[in-house]
Amino acid sequence: MLNVVIIGYVWPEPNSSAAGQNMQSIITRCVASDFNVSFLTAAAESEHKTDLTTLGVDTYAVALNCSSFNTLIENLKPDVVIFDRYMTEEQFSWRVKESCPNALRILNTEDLHSLRQARHSAVKLDGDAKKADLNSELAQREIAAILRSDLTLVISMAEMVLLTEYYRVPNTQLHYQPLVVGQTPSRSIPFETRAHFVHIGNFRHAPNWDAVLQLKQSIWPAIKKALPGAELHIYGAYPPKKATQLHNDKQGFLVKGWAEDVVSLMENARVLIAPLRFGAGIKGKLLDAMRCATPSITTWVGAEGIIPTNTDEDAERLSQHNLWPGAICSTNTTESSVIDDYVNKAVTLYTNQDMWEAASTQARKMLITFSENQPDISLVDKMVKITSDIEAHRKTLFMQSLLWHQTLSASKYMSQWIEAKNK
User: Fold this and answer.
1) Given CA atoms 376, 381, 382, 388 in this order, what sign does their dihedral have?
2) 3-178+374-422 has which CATH code?
3) Among the listed residues 237, 119, 109, the one whose alpha carbon sits nearest the alpha carbon of residue 173
4) Residue 84 forms beta bridges with which residues?
5) Which of 5, 41, 258, 327 is most open to solvent, judged by the fewest CB atoms within 10 Å of its CB?
6) What does each of the 423 residues of the chain score in pLDDT, given as a tens digit?
7) Is the CB of residue 115 less than 8 Å from the CB of residue 280?
8) How would you classify residue 96: left for phi > 0, otherwise alpha for psi between -120 and 50, otherwise beta?
């Protein structure tokens, strides 16, 4: 039985985001393996956080830049410590290394934050996420966190390829941890019973907010003109006032906020639309659409990690061969031809029952393929294997020892300075 400590960047919210779903799945897998699990976080309690105590997980509040963390982690005696996102690794890993040097240190990326940010910057510059700077300062920080860790969990196969082929991270230091797909509804609501378009995504997540703005400003008005009776229902956790102010009954642009039951709203919608211009990782909303047999319209960014595609050209090829369960459009929504493409594909999916049913069937097929693509060894089995001889694992990781020798001093001494100043 392993003692597992998870240091969360935020409280898990499985009904708010794919990241929340992913964290909860890691916790439940550890609990199901009879591991002792403790969850530590410096984050304030959130409105939609899951009740970890019902899962048998002990929870602790921790302070940033405070040696009280060292005392706590020593008392917990972890065999494994999982850092939720690279920022948490930067803040706490040196303390874990000093207090529990033999604990297996695992970084859970959720998605590559540096990739998402670089794509966001590229889109703001000229609208093309493919021109992202992969050598940014943030990339250096995140890759350094990966190399310092004994193991890093990667949610997307596309990011596995990027890490191994571009950043040259050793395969032995990475573990493919795909997003767990929720239960598929036993029934599939037919075309004629469904109505309207749906979009869903946590409003605090920049790619989702950008997608809402693209819909409001250009894509939805054009679709609404072609389909006067259709509505677009916008869901997502934590809608700010600037989002709720976009609600307009006349335009059929309905901002509904928090979704109590994602399956219910998804299986009753006729089409999911997610014009994501940037982002990283796996988009849970698209997997949710697939398990509800709901066709979707998205971009190569949205499809990334679910099906091999990382350019508009790839996306067009997939669309032409009906490999995506719906349609894939360009990320460049500043061009009128792209808006026309969204309209044409939206109208076809919404009104052509044969096309819709073919896409709906393809959704279930793609979901099965995605679900079957699992790692050769499970995370819990790998944790047990590595902890049985942690030194043997670390001896193969030269860059890890080099980075620990040369880096993190600034973070360590800054943290100690802040602590001393606070006293």
Assistant:
1) negative
2) 3.40.50.2000
3) 109
4) 108
5) 258
6) 899 999 999 998 887 788 888 899 999 999 999 999 999 999 888 778 888 999 999 999 999 888 899 999 999 999 999 999 999 999 999 999 999 999 999 999 999 999 999 999 999 998 889 999 999 999 999 999 999 999 999 999 999 999 999 999 999 999 999 988 878 887 889 999 999 999 999 999 999 999 999 999 999 999 999 999 999 999 998 999 999 999 999 999 999 988 888 999 999 999 999 999 999 999 999 999 999 999 999 999 999 999 865 545 555 555 555 689 999 998 888 888 889 999 999 999 999 999 999 999 999 999 988 888 888 899 999 999 999 999 999 999 988 888 887 665 666 666 666 776 676
7) yes
8) alpha
Do 191-372 and 3-178+374-422 have the same topology in CATH? yes
| AA identity, residue 262 | V
Q: Which helix (H) or strand (E) holds 124?
A: helix 113-126
Contact 295, 289 (CB under 8 A): yes
For the chain, the straight-line distance linking the first and the last C-alpha, in angstroms and rounded, comes to 39
Taking the C-alpha atoms of residue 344 and residue 226, their distance in angstroms, rounded to an integer, is 9
Per the CB < 8 A criterion, the answer to whether 174 and 154 are in contact is yes
- Of 310, 338, 312, 357, nearest to 166 (Cα)? 310
**Does domain 191-372 sit in CATH 3.20.20.70?**
no
Token digits of residue 199: 């979009």
Q: For the chain, what are the domain ranges?
A: 3-178+374-422, 191-372
Going from the C-alpha of 302 to that of each of 59, 162, 273, 346, the distances in angstroms are 34, 17, 10, 16
Q: Measured between alpha carbons, how far is residue 257 from residues 51, 199, 243, 278, 296 in Å?
A: 22, 11, 9, 22, 20
Q: For residue 134, what is the DSSP state? A: T
Measured between alpha carbons, how far is 213 from 245 in angstroms, rounded to an integer? 12
